[in-house]
Amino acid sequence: MAENLERQLALMALLAGAKRGLSREDIFGRLETFYPTETGKQAVAAKKMLARDMESLAGLGLPILSSGEDGGDRYRVAGTGETLPADFCLSESEASGLRELLEDPVVVQQLAPPSARVLSNLLAFHAPFDQEGQGENRESSALDARLSRLMAMARVKSAVQISYPSRTGTVETRVISPIGGWLHHGRPYVVAMCHRDQVPKTFTVAKIARLEASAELFFGAPKGFVFEEHANRNAFRLENEGLRKVQIRIAAEESWRLRERAPWAVVEDYPDGAVKAEFAVSSPRRFYRMVLGYGRYAEILGPPEMRSEFAAFLKACL
User: Fold this and answer.
1) Cα Rg for the chain, rounded, in angstroms?
2) CA angle, corner 301, sides to 296 and 306, nearest 5?
3) For the chain, how many structural domains are there in total?
4) Cβ atoms within 10 Å, residue 153
5) Which of 74, 76, 224, 247 lies in disulfide reach of 301, CB 3.0 to 4.6 Å?
6) Which domain holds residue 55?
């Protein structure tokens, strides 16, 4: 493995430093340690090895192009092309289409990891995320995309300037360095180093009114910081932040499915095989759609206003 990597790096360095494409013989001559061709068998093996190395580099997002210069094949590193303008922006339909592709596991599996990261960053930095949401799906998509953008900035170690409300409700301009993101009852949060206080803090993505790259240096997490422990400590504090506790009853015919999907939500077993479950709901419409998945075997027990809202939701669907 190490030998393969060393050979491929040597190949990339050779081609990147060449002013024009190199023939196969040029490559073998300059890298004879890696591609010996003294015997006929070695020459055949070297050709196969070179082809495999080029394929491996292409899979890493470093394609090597072949052109028929001077009557023979010559190889060169693919050019990087023009830099994407900072003000480049995908249209709403383009962003939506790209997001659907990146959410399709079949498509993603066919992409080389570097290509997937490039498309993810394109969506993160050059899509209109901050448009006003229209309806439940649009709002959830905007929040997920904003979290994705923050995670993309964390990967490239870029500090972020955000508009965020203080405890008194005053909107402030803050600079943060994203560390990681997490979901709590479906709501996205980001853990980041606060540049003002120099400590890791949790920020609610839905409360971030604006975000853009900052010129300040990126601050990494302090030594010994464990992201999972920080997230778990904040879970209790976030438990009642904008959430409503809802109880539902699932009949025996479908109780097995609930136990498989959300065993942590079951709070009571009934003698007839039915179960009572409790959920902390931040998105009523999404919760209603989940309940509808159980059909006539599900009943919202409370609170009363959720039963009324669910009835109105069903009426609107007819």
Assistant:
1) 27
2) 95
3) 3
4) 25
5) 247
6) 2-77
